[in-house]
Design goal:
By secondary structure, the chain is α/β, with parallel strands linked by helices. The chain has 2 domains: 4-69 and 340-429, Aspartate Aminotransferase, domain 1 (Alpha-Beta Complex), CATH 3.90.1150.10; 71-317, Type I PLP-dependent aspartate aminotransferase-like (Major domain) (Aspartate Aminotransferase, domain 2, 3-Layer(aba) Sandwich). The chain has 15 helices and 14 strands. The chain has helices at residues 4-13, 71-80, 92-104, 117-132, 157-161, 172-175, 186-196, 221-232, 251-256, 282-285, 304-317, 322-343, 369-372, 377-389, 410-429, and strands spanning 38-42, 45-48, 53-56, 110-114, 136-140, 178-181, 200-205, 235-240, 262-266, 276-280, 349-353, 356-360, 392-393, 402-403. α2 runs antiparallel to α11 (304-317) and α3 (92-104) runs parallel beside α11 (304-317). The model is unreliable at 157-165 (pLDDT under 50).
Length: 434
């Protein structure tokens, strides 16, 4: 596999872009080698500047549930572009997408569109503090809610990749009101609330943790959080930036039967364009300006291109048996990968929820941040490059999630399974995992 053009572009990028990239994991520091520069994508395929074609299981970190260049989304964009890309004023598209979201997630009575998941989580917590008149927030190890100062504490994802529990440039004052507990550990949450319950405005949690690999909630975890917040008068905030409209049309809250007070959304609701949103009960969201004292604004929020793409995407997701087909393919890929690893005696724990998977080269069950970190990083590095050389594009970090889209075919899954068998064999041969 030749990557000469990507090498040239990366060297050129390093002269002007910090680290040569605009988001750290893209630099391939966790797996080594040259980051691929992509020139186009279509369906389940992605093509780099050297003309190499790969089956894409990154899917723009989960955003492309329909696959790349979906005909319905590109049609919506082509219709809107001649009319203008942004107005800085209201449009009917905002209303239509908001109505679709609130019908899908009954916990959301009012919603505000923003431009990223970071904005959504940061703003939702500001509203939670305004509503409860409390300062403190509880989050979980390995859950990433964007790069706002108060949330970069044991944040998983890229931070786990780079071995940083925090980020430089954040003051003690910015995180003094952030409390942290292990994911799936209700006992610790109870102890924290016993000590600080009257100070905690909200719990924020990924209902399915997707930034330390993929870690599902235990049977009692989310219900336990709902009960605890109800008891102490705190709010429960679901960060469904990744899981919203991916786990199901109604998100993880529908799948697990939990109604949070506030929900953060992103990724899929923009149809591949930058987006975020947060919403919840009317009495909470009415704290926002122009109705209330909590301020948040954004020039590009709700821009017509993103709204049009989001509407087109959600219309596709509502079609009959969409999620059933996606589940069938995801289950098949999980089965084939598990069988391939077992056949060559490669130790592997594979977690899956709907069309999201986490591959861990460990013999421990992965239930939290600590057990996720038991994965063998070198094994993943070998696996990643073995798969890449066979035309399979996976996340360039052991702590990211693998995604399946509706564009992935049976042939794609078959090719991935065959490649994985050889990649697992390469892992064992190097003595990285056995």
């Amino acid at each position: 596999m030749k990557v000469a053009n990507s090498k040239v572009l990366f060297k050129r990028a390093e002269n002007t872009l910090v680290g040569g990239v605009n988001s750290p994991v893209r630099a391939f520091k966790a797996v080594g080698g040259t980051p691929l520069f992509i020139r186009k994508a279509y369906g389940s395929k992605i093509e780099d500047e050297d003309g190499n074609c790969y089956i894409d299981f990154v899917c723009s970190w989960g955003a492309l549930i329909l696959g790349s260049a979906s005909p319905s989304v590109t049609k919506a964009l082509r219709q809107q572009i001649p009319r203008g890309t942004t107005y800085g004023a209201p449009t009917k598209f905002e209303i239509e997408l908001a109505e679709m979201i609130t019908r899908a997630l009954p916990s959301i009575e009012r919603i505000r569109f923003v431009n990223s998941g970071t904005e959504a989580s940061m703003s939702a917590l500001r509203v939670a503090r305004a509503f409860t008149k409390r300062k403190r927030i509880l989050k979980f190890e390995g859950c990433y809610h964007g790069h706002a100062d108060g949330l970069l504490v044991k944040g998983g994802s890229g931070m786990a990749t780079f071995g940083a529990p925090d980020s430089a440039g954040i003051t003690d004052g910015a995180i003094v009101d952030t409390l942290v507990a292990p994911y799936n550990d209700l006992d610790t949450v109870k102890r924290i609330f016993e000590e600080h319950g009257d100070e905690i405005a909200a719990i924020i949690v990924e209902p399915v943790a997707a930034n330390m690999g993929l870690v599902p909630p235990s049977n009692e975890f989310l219900h336990g959080l709902r009960n605890i917040t109800n008891h102490y008068g705190a709010l429960l905030v679901f960060d469904e930036v990744i899981t919203g409209f991916r786990v199901s049309y109604g998100g993880a809250q529908n799948t697990f039967g939990i109604q949070p007070d506030l929900t953060c959304l992103g990724k899929i609701i923009g149809g591949g364009l930058p987006v975020g949103a947060y919403g919840g009960r009317s009495d909470i969201m009415d704290q926002l300006a122009p109705l209330g004292p909590a301020y948040q604004a954004g020039t590009l929020s709700g821009n017509p291109l993103t709204m049009a793409a989001g509407i087109a995407t959600l219309r596709e997701l509502k079609k009959r048996n969409f999620y059933q087909r996606l589940e069938k393919n995801s289950n098949e890929l999980q089965r084939r990968l598990s069988e391939a690893a077992k056949e060559v005696n490669c130790k592997l724990k594979l977690n899956r929820v709907s069309s999201m998977m986490g591959l861990f080269f460990t013999d421990r069950n992965v239930v939290d941040y600590s057990s996720a970190k038991s994965t063998d990083i070198e094994s993943y590095r070998v696996f990643f490059h073995s798969m890449l050389n066979r035309g399979i594009y996976l996340p360039p970090s052991a702590f990211e999630t693998t995604f399946i889209s509706a564009a992935h075919s049976k042939t794609d899954i078959e090719k991935c399974a065959r490649a994985a068998k050889e990649a697992f064999r390469a892992v064992v041969a190097k003595g990285a995992s056995s």
